[in-house]
Design brief:
Blueprint: H1 17-31, E1 46-48, E2 65-67, E3 70-72, E4 76-78, H2 86-102, E5 105-107, H3 112-116, E6 134-140, H4 141-158, E7 163-167, H5 170-174, H6 186-197, E8 201-204, H7 212-220, E9 225-227, H8 236-243, H9 246-255, H10 262-273, E10 278-281, H11 288-296, E11 301-304, H12 306-337, H13 343-348, E12 351-353, H14 357-363
Parallel strand pairs: 4-5, 4-11, 5-6, 6-7, 7-8, 8-9, 9-10, 10-11
Antiparallel strand pairs: 1-12, 2-3
Helix pairs in contact: 1-8, 2-12, 4-6, 7-10, 8-9, 10-14, 11-12
């Protein structure tokens, strides 16, 4: 799949362990059972109330918002997935083009491979095909601690990103034989990065959710954008389980449903941090109605990965483009059917929240 704007010459990829792992992750996410049946976002417990006389035309529905000084035409972020290999490069460039075309935000996957092998930076670079997109860099906690603020800043500058996502993935790391086991020093690092990047910095989980107590501490450290990335979508613990054997596979099977469901994380974190913090809801967001539901309970925008990746794998840029169009159309339809011209109107519209989400919200 060649991107529409052409591609510069490809570097020779080193046979690095991290790079091999990234391609294995892509294989599993493309075809594997990475969404355990028992996991739920609990978005089925959020019921938007139909308005039979909405007094609104579809063309009047307004989806734009501003994030990090850039206007998005829809409240969607293509969340960071990959980088570091030829195949990952193609995924990033295809999806970045689609994000550019629709005025969405776009995040690259973990830049650890690029930090270990600087010659891989072209697999994360998308500015030539997405010159205006809101672009988010990405690095993990332990790598950022080792690199320091200056090293992280270079990663962001090398891909001309607008800001940085620091990803938290303790559960995934514990599911890897080669993964990290020491997660001390996190808040000190967050405070340093928040000071360095200001508002153009977000902290995100990777499918296990962020609890309100953690969110409050992040805000105290200066964080102004949080992606709760809750349970219910791709389980990275499950992904590692499928790669593992023996004890690691057994632990992966037991913990592949570990986490805070996305809907519970969104609602509880919004209540905990107030309206001034930008809140991203990712983790199992699959269509426009899901997007509407998370916006209704407190998110500012929604993040999606797996559905767009699979659409790209099946149909390249055109396939991903069609998937985004369907998501946005579904979101517009949900707003109209609740008589909501804007997302702010949607938050004020009636909804019914049922158990077990109601129980989570009362307990967190």
């Amino acid at each position: 799949m060649k991107d529409l704007a052409g591609t510069p010459p490809r570097p020779r990829m080193p046979e690095a362990h991290t790079a091999r792992r990234k391609d294995a992750h892509l294989d599993l996410c493309a075809q594997g059972d990475v969404e355990p049946d028992g996991n739920s976002t609990l978005l089925d417990c959020v019921n938007l109330v139909h308005n039979a006389l909405p007094e609104l035309a579809l063309e009047e529905v307004e989806l734009t918002l501003t994030l990090w000084g850039k206007v998005l035409r829809a409240p969607l972020l293509v969340t960071g997935m990959t980088g570091g290999t030829d195949r990952a490069r193609e995924v990033n460039r295809d999806l970045a083009q689609v994000a550019e075309r629709h005025g969405l935000a776009f995040g690259v996957g973990s830049q650890r491979a690029m930090a270990e092998h600087p010659e891989l930076k072209s697999t994360f670079q998308v500015r030539d095909v997405a010159p205006h997109v809101l672009l988010v860099g990405n690095i993990g906690l332990k790598q950022a601690i080792a690199m320091g603020v200056a090293g992280v800043r270079r990663l962001v500058d090398d891909i001309d990103a607008d800001g940085l996502a620091l990803h938290l993935n303790a559960a995934q790391e514990l599911s890897q034989p080669e993964g990290d086991r020491d997660f001390r020093g996190g808040y000190s690092l967050v405070q340093a990065l928040a000071s360095a990047f200001g508002d153009r910095f977000l902290v995100k989980e990777t499918g296990c959710g962020i609890a309100p107590a953690v969110a409050r501490r992040l805000v105290d450290c200066g964080v102004r954008t949080i992606d709760v990335s809750g349970l219910g979508g791709t389980s990275w613990v499950r992904v590692e389980q499928l790669r593992a054997s023996g004890q690691m596979a057994e632990l992966g099977a037991r913990f592949s449903s570990w986490g805070i469901p996305t809907a519970a994380a969104v609602a509880s974190v919004r209540r905990a941090v107030g309206p001034s913090v930008k809140l991203i809801a990712s983790g199992g967001i699959r269509d426009g109605l899901d997007v509407a539901k998370v916006l209704a309970i407190g998110a500012d925008l929604a993040g999606m990965a797996l559905p767009l990746f699979r659409a790209q794998q099946a149909g390249g840029v055109a396939g991903a483009d069609a998937a985004v169009r369907t998501v946005v159309a579904g979101l517009r339809q949900a707003l109209l059917l609740t008589s909501s011209r804007t997302v702010a109107d949607l938050r004020r519209s009636p909804r019914v929240v049922t158990a077990p989400l109601k129980d989570w919200m009362e307990s967190l």
